[in-house]
Specification:
The complex is a heterodimer of chains A (287) and B (240). Helix content of chain A is 25%, strand content 33%. With 287 residues, chain A is an alpha+beta fold. In chain A, a hairpin with a 2-residue loop joins β8 and β9. The longest helix of chain A is centred in the first third of the chain and has 18 residues. In chain B, the strands form two sheets. Chain B has a six-stranded mixed beta sheet with strand order 5-4-3-6-7-8, with helices on both faces. Chain B has a two-stranded antiparallel ribbon with strand order 1-2. Classes of the chains: A alpha+beta (287), B alpha/beta (240).
Chain lengths: 287, 240
């Protein structure tokens, strides 16, 4: 398995002279597992959420590195409690709002993979036949429930007051299935459903069986993938996962090329983008 | 020194063959393709050992540079354009294995420059097709003017533009270096201007001090071109 990551600043932050508030990180764990993580600081907080994005990424990394659990259990048991503890202990500044950031991360072995998401973001897979699935999660009013809120005793009740129907309509989950071939993008199916607050209050965990499901790629992404000019998210992801090769900086190469092609067609990323991805196919191949 | 393993592939540029590491064996996201073209004609007899020292010093210096992992080097010795080795990641080259050439023959300067640029263009195309970002620098070290080339200066100029125009290369710098070539300075200057080369440097006599400066100049030029990768344009020409 090869793992890599990439992140880049969006046009909005470039024009404002503000830093990239997305972050990505990846690597190998002590066992035969790999991990990847992306995070997205809250632009609306008017705070140094670039710091929060890095902090939450490293908090997640530290948490999974310290856990000695069987495959597939990385994000279960007392994971959330340990993540909160690590996140609270990694503080560079005294401003709480600096730490408003989403996080999406995975741990994978050839047999088992799990994804953890807190806030919003996207998860994408591609199988051996080239069929891709994209799962996007967005909160009502584009106001995610951040991990930082769980450290503030009074915030939960205040947050729930902002949701019209907290138990029914807090997070929208969109699942799109598609494939890419010589003729272009083919949409194979799409479904949208609303989830209640409790479904994501302590994060969402998804499990995969890469070998059984024939998966070749598992990727986590921030929501900037749906803000690249007029390019639909699934079209962007189809390009982001169309690796020509899978060694070393394979995600960086593909992302740079794909974004260059999009920009040549007039589609610039408005928002920051972060991607972390594991390749589970042939060592040197694209299959 | 021959470096050709299962990780390499061959390519063709016009009538010339070259080799390079297979893209699927490469790890970085971007590379600067460096070609060192060193004169091995009869006229450099007597200071071929010095030129070898220059080559070794350049490779040693570049191996220590911060961006060493993003450099690929091809070494060519010319009278007949012999490929010492193809495009290989510089960190994998042991400069102590280079040997002084057996100097003989006439100078095919235009052919040597053309084939080095053409190989750079073709290998860059292969890398670009595999999502790599690429730029290039070709350094041609000669002590004389062209005698026997089949290629023309006009063809060299066209080939220098081809890689960038096709967006295989972000930029390409071609530096002509004259050593002990004061008598041909005028002709080399004409080649530089009409051939669309980036820079012409007349080192003067092949003294140890001048050659040490040359090694430093070449390694700085390579590092500078590598640092410019991603900026959209070439590095600025450095002063010898």
């Amino acid at each position: 398995m090869n793992v890599d990551h990439f992140f880049t600043i969006g046009a909005m932050h470039v024009s404002q002279g503000t830093p990239c508030e997305d972050y990505a990180w990846s690597g190998h764990l002590h066992s035969d597992a790999v991990f990847g993580v992306v995070s997205d600081g809250c632009s609306g907080a008017c705070a140094n959420t670039d710091i929060g994005a890095r902090t939450i990424s490293f908090a997640l990394t530290r948490t999974i590195q310290s856990r000695k659990v069987p495959g597939g259990e990385w994000f279960r048991g007392d994971f959330f409690h340990e993540l909160r503890k690590n996140f609270a202990s990694l503080r560079l500044t005294d401003t709480e709002n600096d730490y408003l950031a989403t996080v999406v991360g995975f741990v994978a072995t050839p047999e088992t993979a799990s994804v953890f998401l807190m806030g919003d973001g996207a998860i994408a897979t591609r199988d051996a036949e080239g069929i891709c699935q994209l799962i996007e999660l967005d909160w009502y009013g584009n106001a995610p429930y951040y991990l930082e809120y769980t450290l503030r005793s009074d915030h939960r009740a205040r947050f729930l007051k902002g949701l019209p129907e907290p138990s029914l309509q807090a997070v929208q989950r969109r699942t799109t299935t598609f494939s890419m071939n010589e003729t272009g993008l083919s949409l194979l199916g799409s479904a949208t459903k609303w989830l209640g607050f409790e479904a994501l209050e302590t994060g969402l965990v998804l499990d995969f069986k890469p070998q059984d499901q024939g998966l070749r790629v598992l990727a986590v992404m921030t929501d900037g993938i749906s803000h690249i000019g007029a390019v639909p998210a699934e079209a962007a992801v189809a390009q982001f996962l169309a690796f020509k090769n899978t060694r070393g900086g394979f995600v960086k190469r593909r992302m740079r090329k794909a974004l260059t092609v999009f920009s040549q067609d007039g589609h610039m990323p408005r928002d920051d983008i972060a991607v972390a991805c594991v390749w589970m196919g042939d060592e040197n191949g694209i299959h | 020194m021959q470096i050709f393993t299962d990780d390499m592939q061959t390519g063709t540029a016009g009538n010339f063959n070259f080799s390079g590491v297979r893209p699927e064996k490469l790890g970085a996201a971007e590379y600067t393709l460096v070609t060192l073209v060193m004169d091995r004609t009869g006229s450099v007899n007597g200071f071929e050992a010095d030129l070898l020292r220059v080559k070794r010093a350049v490779v040693e210096a570049c191996r220590k540079a911060p961006r060493a992992e993003y450099l690929m080097l091809r070494s060519v010795e010319v009278n007949e354009r012999v490929d010492v080795h193809g495009f290989v990641e510089l960190v994998n080259i042991d400069p102590s294995k280079y040997r002084a050439p057996n100097c003989k023959g006439s100078t095919a300067l235009f052919d040597a420059t053309y084939s080095a640029v053409a190989a750079t263009n073709e290998y860059a195309r292969t890398l670009a097709d595999n999502d790599f970002s690429v730029n290039g620098i070709v350094i041609v070290v000669t002590d004389g003017d062209d005698n026997v080339s089949a290629q023309t200066v006009k063809n060299v100029a066209k080939e220098i533009k081809r890689g960038v125009q096709n967006e295989w290369l972000e930029s390409l710098n071609v530096v002509l270096v004259g050593v002990n070539a004061t008598c041909c300075k005028k002709h080399l200057d004409v080649f530089y201007r009409n051939g669309g080369l980036t820079q012409y440097v007349d080192v003067g006599d092949a003294t140890p001090q001048k050659l040490a400066r040359l090694a430093d100049f070449i390694s700085r030029s390579i590092t500078s071109q590598s640092q410019s990768l991603g900026t959209g344009g070439p590095s600025q020409a450095l002063t010898f």
